[in-house]
Amino acid sequence: MSEKELRRYSRVVVDGDEQAPSRAMLRAVGFSEDDFQRPQVGIASTWSMVTPCNMHIDGLADEAAKGANEAGAKGVIFNTISVSDGISMGTPGMRYSLVSREIIADSIEAVVGAEGFDGVVAIGGCDKNMPGCIMALARLNRPSVFVYGGTIKPGAKRRDIVSVFEAVGARSGGKISSDELLEVEQTAIPGPGACGGMYTANTMASAIEALGMSLANSSAQEAVSRQKIGDCNRAGRAVMNLIREDIKPLDIMTRDAFENAIAVVIALGGSTNAVLHLLAIAREAGVPLELDDFTRIGARVPVLADVKPSGKYLMSELIEIGGIQPLMKRMLDAGLLHGDCLTVTGKTLAENLADVADYPDGQAIIRELDDPIKRDSHLAVLYGNVAPEGSVAKITGKEGLRFEGRARVFASEEDALQAILDDTVKAGDVLVIRFEGPKGAPGMREMLSPTGAIMGKGLGAEVALITDGRFSGGSHGFVVGHVSPEAAVGGPIALIQDGDTIRIDAEAKEINVDVSDAELAERRKTWQRPASPVRTGVLAKYRNEVSSASEGAVTIPPAWD
User: Could you tell me which of 474, 505, 495 has the C-alpha nearest to residue 386?
Assistant: First the structure.
């Protein structure tokens, strides 16, 4: 490929007399004469000071640009937004969390498309900006590498953000004092990086590495480490290699690559949000992927990682024994991964894993394949008269595999949380939190505050929770989310009443309310959709455009003929 061909997009912006105004503008931001002859690599940074997950990413972006420059490109840094799930959790602000995924994807697409970048390095450090980055890279289909900002170091006594949420429930239950709660609050978050368990950030970082869109071990490095700095520099260099080899995201994000990502998420005991995000990314990539694919793959892939929230260990401890590469090598050798998938290294997954050493003897974090934590997936896609279009449960087996109880219905997360904290909720209850779906919230809020309070109260094995909203990766217990159709569009979850018997069966993959079809039809006659809490702005736009959670809660419009 000629030097001019390497600048497939940027040459339109900077070549020729007619582009003198463009070059004049670029000189002002630091371009030299030679830079106009180099491929331009956009460095999409999600840096901000609104969350510890992203507070260090400005430095990582600088290193990625340096790597691109050293490889013969011109790195150009630009920013996109991020919002903090952990900070907005349990408040109206959480409505913006999933919405931000679409905003991030749109903004990266807009900048790269407008500026004519020939390649992209996207750096994300939190739950929604990571899938948002990958969605944009799929749309743009220009040589690209994703870099994970890295996990946070453990807090005092191996605490993390979920420790704080659960301490709130423990304080309400009188198990700890207000001073003890304050001490947990003050010590759980020691600095930069994403939440420390196998919550959504670490889950999605691992999924993206398995998908082939990040370099080896990018998912398994602490945010503040020499390894992460090196990862960013190599990513900048890798994009230049992808430009030369003309390898693009859609060459990498194939059907088999998505199956690899799903398999790794299951083996790690990852977040239910991975279902939502992988469906959305696949939609952007033009890859057919459905809820039932998670069931099919989950039938043959065991849960192997004893990690938080339902297990013992933090991501930092998994990093210490080698990260996810040895796990992927084990899975590849067992026929659980597709080894011929292309990756951003320019090599196949099997080639990348060829020389990976196994975990050290005596480690207890990753189980052997013949001694799993659970022999099939913890992500159970359930159907029934509560969820005709599906729902997603996170059931490791520690909570049991079946739950039957009486419905206690709430129209918002706040109402449910208050009922948990004031002891209205009792053992045997199935909390039904509705009007929290993609359209109903709008924005599909996460339910970490209620699930954290349930665990903190000691009710994790005695209370179930179902919702048309979703769950933080830090949630655990007998929980079912993504119930579709959602209440706001008249889904059956809108018709459940206090006292109805609800049966959840993770083995039969069913979720049902013990009410006849005739009775549900009678209830529907008097049902009215409540007024939406928003009228204008981005939330209203999202409500009007967003699809069902069973389709990834995407906002892709129909084709225009």
Answer: 495
